[in-house]
Amino acid sequence: MSDHPQFVLLNGQHTSLVVDCSNKTPAILYFGKKLSSKTTYDMMKQLSTRQEAKCSVVVEAPISLSPLMGEGFTGAPGIEVFDNNIAWSIGGTLTSVTQPSANEAIFECIDSLRNLSVKHHLTLDPHSDVLSATTQLTNLGNDSVNVNWCAAPTIPMPLHIDQIMSFEGRWSNEFQRKSFDMFLGSFVRENRKGKTSHDNFPGMVMHNKLTHEQGGECYGFHLGWSGNHKMRAELLAEGRSYAQLGELLMPGELALAPNESYTSPTLYTAYSNQGFSGLSHHFHQFVRQSLITNKVRQKPRPVHYNTWEGIYFDHDVAVLQSLATQAADIGAERFVLDDGWFKGRRGDFAGLGDWTVDREIYPDGLQPLIDHVNNVGMEFGLWFEPEMVNPDSDLYRNHPEWALQTAGNEQLKFRKQLVLDMTNPAVTDYLFNAINDILVEYPQIVYIKWDMNRDLNHAGNLAGKPAVHQQTLAAYALIERLKQAHTHVEIESCSSGGARVDYGVLRYTDRVWTSDSNDALDRLTIQRGCSFFFPAEVMGAHVGPRDCHITGRNISIAMRAAVAFFGHMGIEMDPRELTDDERQQLQQIIQLHKQHRQLIHSGKLVRLNSDGDSINFGIVNDNQSQGLFAYNSVKETQRTNPPKYHFAGLDADKDYTLSLVWPAGFSFYSQSILSVIENQTFSGEALMTFGMQLPITFPQTSLIFELNQVK
To answer: Does the annotation mark 421 as catalytic?
Structure first.
């Protein structure tokens, strides 16, 4: 009889996790709605009894935390290793269970024949109900062991969860959602681009056909990792299903020397029986409590002015000072000088790697611009792309061997730049010193926009080995090293927009650039998809130019501003293009954002189910006394009048005053509902159950409503 417990229970506020330790290896017996004391482990074990099926093994191989071929598992193994002997058929036996706290447990299995240890570390956050899970593989032997795959813990799914929602896309169109039926076999998404990627976000949601935004069961999965990854959802022939996520390793990328360990990226997963919005609430709470630093959390998120779509590479100190003055007058609180400030940088064809101020453009350095920005009341931020190098640069001419490459394979052209080999300490030391020198010379720099604009196509280091795993860890380490040296500096993760948006990089940074598209219609779907895992305050959202530089669409300032209003708001345009009316509208909504940003950046997001014509959502505070709700008309309604707007997330027993706060001075060709509801009182029950008739608007119109509890 083993001395470890037969079952381990972890409880959150709304969720229970039960791990069955009574077999050879640990497996999740239950993960879902919080259980009462009436339900015992023995009950669940008995109710899980499965019969020997015809033409099958007598006892099915378990879907353990790491299902293994050595256990006879014929689905996807959680671990794949090999050496010159028999390591490929790793088995293992549970030898210890430890619980450092009431909400975490560590399970260790040892295969004494193959000298391998597997540890699974599970933590169910008591506040957010998010489960964090890792797998650690350790070589206890005297010979090296090659690792092909070591997934984070595998999560079995209830049989009624039969839908998969994936998050896909492309550059400037990230976080597009697609749901489809599970099928016999595996849904697999793989990313080999060396960064989180635009097209294969490392996250998915599993649900059933009845689940919607405000109701039904669903499970969310996200791998907190900024390199290559692999996701699998598999339905086995016997009817069982599971989710499995992990780092995608290149051939020969990982070999464990004696006593060496590998720990998988953390899998973050959550359960909700309150629909997709309830699931997002769990993830948002986790980000706010566990990933955003106290320093950043306690400070209002400054409204940005970013120079990129305003001037691109056309830098001139006097012009920039004028833009700063205008941006401050509009209401911006942080000025971010984007690409084009450093030596030889007149376009994207040269200069990357030479991180010194270009004295031809800035003869007196950056100080005159920084002083002006500070004098008009804004903080100063600066753009870097540290991981890249242009062949046309002093750095590359001096150190061509510092670029990732593979012998015999010609470098692929990609935005006229190559990737630096961050696995080489000389490279990261150079980068640290170069960026540190700028931050020391200009201590008023309080923000870095950290960009990464190409894939890692030939990810080989100086030793000729695959490098994505170590490259990713080196990028994290460099960011952390700089932040420790300059604790006042915040850092944004950007990768041509949303190609490096994940919980891995968010542990080291403070904001993500959600997408390079500032098109308001694009942004509605992009931000909606991103909001499944990320709260508003970390999602950069800017008011772009009148004519979008990516789509060419012309969208009113009122709608562009209303869409950016619900993120970490900013402006990214040449303010000289603004008419007096547009400038006034932008000033008004930025002031409105500042009045409400504490709610926007801390409240509970409630996405409303879409009718295909509009994209609607709200933010409600903790005690349900205040809310902001957006109606975003995307295309003309199918009927002569649009449908009713059913608010959500309110207290049915409370009364609320209702008012339209955006756009200001909105007018209609005929009397609408807006003329009779302004500052009137309605019960939460009426607003949610009966709903509000919407006015007839032109397509591409955004309305923002404010609700306040009647005291």
So the answer is: no
